Amino acid sequence: MAQSFPEDVLEHVFSFLNYDKDRNAVSLVCKSWYEIERLCRRRIFIGNCYAVSSEIVIRRFPDVRAVELKGKPHFADFNLVPEGWGGYVYPWIVSLARAYPWLEEIKLKRMVVTDESLELISKSFKNYKVLVLLSCEGFTTDGLASIAANCRNLRELDLGESEVEDLSGHWLSHFPDNCTSLVSLNISCLGSEVSFCALERLVARCPNLKTLRLNRAVPLEKLPNLLCRAPQLVELGTGAYSAEIQSDIFSNLAEAFLGCKQLKGLSGFWDVVPAYLPAMYSVCSRITSLNLSYATAQNPDLVHFVSQCSNLQRLWVLDYIEDTGLEALAASCKDLHELRVFPSDPFDAEANVSLTEQGLVAVSEGCPKLQSVLYFCRQMSNAALVAIARNRPNMIRFRLCIIEPRAPDYLTLEPLDTGFGAIVENCKELRRLSMSGLLTDRVFEYIGTHAKKLEMLSIAFAGDSDSGLHHVLSGCESLRKLEIRDCPFGDKALLANATKLETMRSLWMSSCSVSFGACKLLGQKMPRLNVEVINERGLPDSRPESCPVEKLYVYRTIAGPRVDMPGFVWTMDEHVSSRLSRVTERRGD
Amino acid sequence: MEKGVAYDNDMNLKATELRLGLPGTDESQKECSSFVKSNKRSSEEMDSSCNEEECAPAPKALVVGWPPVRSYRKNVLQQQQKKSDSDVSGMYVKVSMDGAPYLRKIDIKVYKNYPDLLIALENMFKCSMGVYSEREGYNGSEYAPTYEDKDGDWMLVGDVPWDMFVTSCKRLRIMKGSEAKGLGCQ
């Protein structure tokens, strides 16, 4: 049957398939479809850079134009992955440079990117267009200068929330005068001031610029200069949103915003002076995405501004919004899809604001499209969680962080098992869940029973025994990523569900009760898993088998054990016993 | 399954006991003696060189990576809090004196403590305010320094610790001693 269609017809049909899942399915139909598909696949997504080698990728897909790579595990965001762990992109860039001269896009997340890598990117690809670096580190503004100078057709430069060594703002001036192709520029994570003149001229000569996220050093008084030159902007990240209160600054700002008829997204707002918020009122009704999570404004200024945005779909905000603000949000923003409330003072045990579970309940009641939540608070009850679950069966992402570990239901002092149980039972499409508070094995039983579409689960300070982990691993059919810290889960559940781990992208367990012996056994039993132990205090001298590991990272791979591990990371495979004994011999010196 | 992985024995139960403080030196942990911190939970990760005997239990706020706020966000908020502390209050404040025709402005961040501030005020306004006492305030002096705090209340200068004063003082007023009498009392 497949032979009745000529190759180019099939290729044309396949060109409509954009999702990896679909392309993967197509390539399994028969050998000729596999061959045709692999020759015309242009975009590659690699969720774990150690799951596959660049050689394997290049061999299968000879003509790729866009590559997306992720490196460190998610818990690296919270300093749980030690410095030097890995995630180096340079070897990938070297291979990609050799194999894909027409590569246009590279997107990286949680990877170590050096100036060398950036320079190689800037010089290796003839039509390079997109560079996105999310939560990356290891490079300086010198590397950015290479990109600016050498990528003639650069469309997108997004530095995400990367850690950049900021040597100077001069790099921006390296964009040549004939560079007019920019569509998206995000430099919000940079500390030093870029030359405003250079920035202004760059913005003026890029007529297709749709996204501009400035860094804090760009003063508010100068913002109108940029907005006037880019009235077509769809997304704007302001610099510092503060200035002396002067009427001419205000009127310039208001007038500039008035000209931005396409603006849909706002972010930035460092050092916000609330008196300047009304300057944006003219755009508020069109705003669908608002990131005020760095804005230390308080009510009533804060809630007044947010309530103006009646078409808001996504709101990121600090807990200064308080319950009252969230109630107002629920009343005015009926199109809200996503809410993230971050803590203004995460390390204070005492609440500095009046934000409780009530705010979240109110939004779940008032916003019928709410499907994605990240909420930091200091108290929670089963009743509230049950209400939220009943209100919003369409919830897809639910991440709740009660600041005090193991905090019980503040009304009944019971564990929050029932509440989270209601979430997984009612929200049948739930794909991501992060839990907190006092939780017993019971909640994991609920999760294993009901959370059939759950793909990512984050657990901390929860559970009583291995059966908790066992419920999750044996029940959650769609589970791809599991990350656990400070839970009493050990060897039994891990080993009993060894084969499950090959169906997942990765498992992270830190400060749990998994022993070296179990890790070794797992590594030996499962050759297609890398079972990596992170032990900064070195290997145990005595009775290593039963000593618990500090951190465990298990991931499926077809690339074998990695070769770039630092001294405190070991791959537990069949070679490890001899390696372990060699180490203990050396330590005897 | 290997015998060594039996997790029901006493040692491993202890291993699963979660604590935020340092563990005591248990009999059962002697087997992992060189690994003295192997069963410690996250609160000890803050200082890996710390010896059990030397360190006090870590305060809860220092559990590594908890609450799960990205360092980028933490840093930005910390920076802003510092900045707002210095902008909103404490830097340049207006100083008025009863009977004086115009106000002055001073930067209270320039001073290190109350005596410094009082001497400066005395010189600026050519008045005497004497010495502060908790019970008596500035009783007996010709003038007494007062200030308006963040909540809008008028307070006697000297009642609160210096650092707290600097961040909460919005303006100063040097009152006639006779009018300030009531302020010195509890």
UniProtKB/TrEMBL annotation, chain A:
<dbReference type="InterPro" id="IPR041567">
    <property type="entry name" value="COI1_F-box"/>
</dbReference>
<dbReference type="InterPro" id="IPR041101">
    <property type="entry name" value="Transp_inhibit"/>
</dbReference>
<keyword id="KW-0539">Nucleus</keyword>
<keyword id="KW-0833">Ubl conjugation pathway</keyword>
<keyword id="KW-0927">Auxin signaling pathway</keyword>
<dbReference type="GO" id="GO:0009734">
    <property type="term" value="P:auxin-activated signaling pathway"/>
</dbReference>
<dbReference type="Pfam" id="PF18511">
    <property type="entry name" value="F-box_5"/>
</dbReference>
<dbReference type="InterPro" id="IPR032675">
    <property type="entry name" value="LRR_dom_sf"/>
</dbReference>
<dbReference type="InterPro" id="IPR006553">
    <property type="entry name" value="Leu-rich_rpt_Cys-con_subtyp"/>
</dbReference>
<keyword id="KW-0217">Developmental protein</keyword>
<dbReference type="GO" id="GO:0010152">
    <property type="term" value="P:pollen maturation"/>
</dbReference>
<feature type="domain" description="F-box">
    <location>
        <begin position="5"/>
        <end position="46"/>
    </location>
</feature>
<dbReference type="GO" id="GO:0005634">
    <property type="term" value="C:nucleus"/>
</dbReference>
<dbReference type="GO" id="GO:0010011">
    <property type="term" value="F:auxin binding"/>
</dbReference>
<dbReference type="Pfam" id="PF18791">
    <property type="entry name" value="Transp_inhibit"/>
</dbReference>
<comment type="pathway">
    <text>Protein modification; protein ubiquitination.</text>
</comment>
<dbReference type="InterPro" id="IPR036047">
    <property type="entry name" value="F-box-like_dom_sf"/>
</dbReference>
<dbReference type="InterPro" id="IPR001810">
    <property type="entry name" value="F-box_dom"/>
</dbReference>
<protein>
    <submittedName>
        <fullName>Protein TRANSPORT INHIBITOR RESPONSE 1</fullName>
    </submittedName>
</protein>
From TrEMBL, chain B:
<dbReference type="GO" id="GO:0009734">
    <property type="term" value="P:auxin-activated signaling pathway"/>
</dbReference>
<keyword id="KW-0804">Transcription</keyword>
<comment type="similarity">
    <text>Belongs to the Aux/IAA family.</text>
</comment>
<keyword id="KW-0678">Repressor</keyword>
<protein>
    <recommendedName>
        <fullName>Auxin-responsive protein</fullName>
    </recommendedName>
</protein>
<comment type="subunit">
    <text>Homodimers and heterodimers.</text>
</comment>
<keyword id="KW-0927">Auxin signaling pathway</keyword>
<dbReference type="GO" id="GO:0005634">
    <property type="term" value="C:nucleus"/>
</dbReference>
<comment type="function">
    <text>Aux/IAA proteins are short-lived transcriptional factors that function as repressors of early auxin response genes at low auxin concentrations.</text>
</comment>
<dbReference type="InterPro" id="IPR033389">
    <property type="entry name" value="AUX/IAA_dom"/>
</dbReference>
<dbReference type="Pfam" id="PF02309">
    <property type="entry name" value="AUX_IAA"/>
</dbReference>
<keyword id="KW-0539">Nucleus</keyword>
<feature type="region of interest" description="Disordered">
    <location>
        <begin position="20"/>
        <end position="44"/>
    </location>
</feature>
<keyword id="KW-0805">Transcription regulation</keyword>
<feature type="domain" description="PB1">
    <location>
        <begin position="90"/>
        <end position="177"/>
    </location>
</feature>
<dbReference type="InterPro" id="IPR053793">
    <property type="entry name" value="PB1-like"/>
</dbReference>
<dbReference type="InterPro" id="IPR003311">
    <property type="entry name" value="AUX_IAA"/>
</dbReference>
